[in-house]
Amino acid sequence: MNTSIIKLVQHSLGVSGVLGQCSPALASQLHTSAPLCRVVSGKYRITKKRDKPLTYEMANPPHYIAHRKSWNSWNTSNLKDGLRRSETALEDEFIRRFMTGTWHGLVCSEIIVKRQFNHIRVAGIIRRAVSPTKMYFLLGYTEELLSNWLQCPVTLELQTVDSFKDVVFKYI
Amino acid sequence: MSLFIRNYKPNSLATVYNVKIWRLHSTAAESTQKKDENEEEFRVLDILKKKDRIQRKVTRRADIQPDRSDRMAPDQNWGNVWPGPKTFHPSSVPLPLRQGYVPKGQAPPGKKANAELMKVPNFLHLTPPVIKSQCEAIKQYCTEWPNLLNSQEAIEKHYPVEIITSDYCHASPSIRNPLARIVTLRVKLSTLKLDKHARDKFIRLVGDRYDSSTDLVTITADRCPARIQNTDYVNYLLTACFHEAWNVEEWEKDKTEDDMEYYDWNNNASKKSLVNWHLQKKGESKTLTDDEYKSFDVSEIQHADGYKNAVSDWMNSGESEETVKKYAEAVRKLFGLPEKKVV
Amino acid sequence: MYSNVVVPRHWTRLSCLCRSLTSLEGQKVPQTAKSSDGISPPPRIRRGPTDILQALAATVGTDPTAAHYKYHDDPYLIPLSNFRKRAYALSAEAGRKAAAWIRDEHADLFTTREWDPPNKAKTPYFNADPHIKAFEPKPIYNDESKVTEADLQYAIKNALIEDSTKVFQLLGGVEGVNDELKLQFLQLLCFYNEKEPDSMEWLEERWFAANTRDRQATTWRVGGLAEKIFQSLEPKTSEAYCAIIQGMAKYYQAERAHMLASEAIEKGLQLSTSVYNSLLACVGFLREGTQMRIEALKSTLAQMNEQGISPNSETLSACLKSISAWGGGKALQQVALQVVAEFRKLGIEPGLAAYYYLLCVFCKERGPRYDLLSTMINDLEKKQSLVATEPADTNFFITAMGVCSDHLQNMDLAERLHNLLMKDDNYKLVGDAYKESIFYRHYVTVTCRLAPFEKTVEILDTLIPNVYVPEPSVMEEIIKTLEVGGAGDRLAQAWSQLVVFGHARRARLVERLLDAMCNTYQGQDEEIKAKMRSAATDILNFGIMSEEQEETKELRTPGQKLSASALCNIVDMCSDAKDKADPGWQTVNAALQKLGREEAAGVPAKPQVLADVAQKAVAIGQPAIAAAAVTYLAECGFEEAMSASVQVLSTMLNRPESEVEALLGQQHSSLTGALHPSAMAIAEAYSIAKTGAPVQRESSSSSSDSDSESSDDE
Prior knowledge:
Chain A: InterPro entries: Ribosomal_uS3m. Chain A: It is found in: Mitochondrion. Chain A: Its main location: mitochondrion. The complex is a heterotrimer of chains A (172), B (343) and C (714). Chain A has 172 residues and is an alpha/beta fold. Chain A has helices at residues 2-15, 23-29, 56-59, 85-102, 132-150; strands spanning 53-55, 73-74, 112-116, 119-127, 154-161, 168-171. Chain A contains five helices and six strands, in the order ααβαβαββαββ. Chain B has 343 residues and is mainly α. Among the domains of chain B are: 79-139, no CATH class; 152-251, Double Stranded RNA Binding Domain (2-Layer Sandwich); 264-335, no CATH class. In chain B, 41% of the residues lie in helices and 5% in strands. Helix content of chain C is 61%, strand content 0%. In chain C, helix 17 runs parallel beside helix 19 and helix 31 crosses helix 32 (657-665). In chain C, 38% of the residues are buried. Chains in contact: A-B, A-C, B-C. At the B-C interface, helix 5, helix 7, strand 1 and helix 10 of B face helix 1, strand 1 and helix 2 of C.
């Protein structure tokens, strides 16, 4: 699909040269990355038995972001002229991986990372599969290690649910 | 099977055999019974591993306390419950909230285990009563507004110099933002109390930083890394320009009419012609020097002021329908011609 | 070029015209409170970096439904018992410690850029700007470390005893360090007596630490590093003397401290006020006997006067500390008052610590009452803010509340004291977890005993369970109050609270609760009665369940079993069912079986209850239960058994009582076939009660009969 667009552009450029004048506009619309493939990416295949559980987040494909679901990262780097774009994206990914690894098998939702000033608030839904004491240990450990690593105060704001079934939105 | 039995003659061996087959094929219950009897169990090839996929029975914890929102008094102070920004938590918010897109006819997902509600930055910590009380609390650090500065004009009169800077709030471990260093100074030129020469020189010095339509001089500095340095720099620029404008250098005397920044009617041929025409009309024929021409008082000529303004206007602001019309009227007045009749 | 510009009056005029849109920084402000001429901005109100935040924080009150903010706000994670509060807070801190350990062990990972090439030197990299010290890895010192004096300075500044000792050794001991650093190190060692203090970083450990009262015993390390350093200092300055004397006095090496003090005075060195304060605090170790000690105290004060050292408020509390440690008695109380009066004359008002020691001297458990507290509270309420100046300050509130509850028994004072503690940020004076719980124990006790019922309930609702979880003794007090107030529904709730707080296995408390429930049962609404019945059922089931658990797990300390009276109370309440099918009867049955199997301690205090229950059971059509009750009565040898069995039988057989009595008088064997098994059991009970022994058959078989019968009935 991407290649076809490129071809189209090349073709029209070659033929008329008119498009060359408005090439900045065209260039900004030309993506070669996967997200444009609306057909496949971020979508789940329907199973034969229709027993694949989906959360609300999974049930809505990426193009519904800002329409039916909102972002998982909230920061000013995503805005126009935001600073530290790459660093923020990398740190957020680090937080996500750290959380899912440290709270192994307990995280039932996406990890939501919200930043305000230098305060990072990490939210998520956690299964009540370990004792509260262990959860408190993990809470303290995660907060301290992440804040030492990122050098920002990190706060975990979790919600607990009985089982993964509580966050299931539908089955496909 | 019954057919099978019927077709065979009932001899003893066949019957026994038959019975055995019969047994094997009869019911599932029997076969399982058999299986139990057998010492070696037939191992089933379980490709999908169905047995392992059966989840252990999840014991729901019964000792989890009810939500604390149930215990909240209806007249409680919400600010105490939610004092600061925090991710939404269903057990602490006594509101029947729902969020999520669903097909028509269904109810959106409730507040429990709803990640969408946790994503949205909420303002539960900034309810109007809380804002009010917080404003009251920090009032002790506020000073009174000077009472004479009660209008924009007063402010402009007493504080003609404006320093414009921007502070940036952003989510990052660093509080620095390079854009915060930029400092803009704005001042109305008329408040600087310059004389004609100084004003002209000042405008020439600042160049396009002067906007003649608003009479504002805008000086922006972003060359230094810190704001305070830039502030010092714009102040220095203004000061330097100001004092430089008052200086008169030797070479400035070489200024010719071509160097004039505007059309001065007094110095130009138009006045000369007017004065000559006036003198001729009076019947006096004198030859005047340049300086005499310049200092000639045109007020003794009738309608000369109007003419002067019209010409200056035309020359300074360019030829347009307006200026041409004005010029025509001035000339008619000067020569005592009748007004142009509007057809 | 800038310097070449001549700055005449225009420049000053310009700068004074300057107006900044975004801030008032850099403005020349007139030195009056308001705008002086109505044009220039008024002077800026000076404020610290956190003043605004504190002003905002002051607008937030307490939320009785929420746990302390150190706990996570989630139903699963909010602790409800003292054990859990402790466990949760400490495990969170354990996690934090684990992370800090990783940070310190792998410090190289935390301060360098990840994208530095592998073989190159790593550049220090700080994500945060401005740099945050708290997130920096802490240095670790071992025998191989290369250290400088800066390291020692760092360790001393951060009060790291072990680290600084290590660094000190690495630097070459007393020879390798200059005198100034040695003095600093000496001061540190003397302050902590060479023991690593609890780190300031781990708040929860400090909060839950059990070091409640410092022992008044000689713990000074004789011949330790501190003394070695002191010996090595030459010449010994007055600061060195001050440090070592204070250290010795603080850890009760009294005689040597006083010796050194006199040595210093002989040498003509100036000692500080705090040296004398510490000497005064341990003056009692020098002499024996109250009179001698008072003499010693006075002579030390006189010496202080000679040296021309003026006392401060800590001197007062040091004197009172000494006096309070010497026991009670009129003489000491007199001296204490004298001291306070003397200091008042000097313009030194007693602080919280001084008040604490005064309360210790005067308000003894069995002594006469002294109402010092009300004047103290009057005084403290007038103060703008309470500032903690010494560790003993945190003892004031718990002691004062103890005095309110035990000594004065004054609800009014208790409430004022509590309000004082809640004012502004006085709550920091509560001390630690242990002191906090003692404070509230006293407060709740005095409230339960003295406050009007509505008030008590209100206070209990705000405090329990998020601020304070009552101990068993306080719970008993609360139950008593609820009983007197006749609050049936609250008593029913109290059971669930007992379970949540972890007191449900304490038989005495549960018995007390059952008693209270039973006493208030009559006169409640039907709805509340039903609640109380279900609570009673729950108690019984919980008992059975925990017994089963004990059997399987073989706990070391088996829980106590409920007494017979308690079971009777359950029976009493649950039998108040109008319907045969009511689940209450099942509970009654279970309880009676427990009684019958002699699983309960003692005998019921109110046997008449069981007789009544038997009567009721029969009337409603539960003969087996009636039989069980009567049999139990008979087996225990209660007088009521005879009359009860007669009454029950008469109801059961629908005959007048006299006839029944005559029937029972007959030969036992003749009845056997004729009667219903339950009736038979009752008849047997009658005979047991009458003769003291079962006739023909053994009681066990009869009870088992009735058991099987009852199961048939259901």
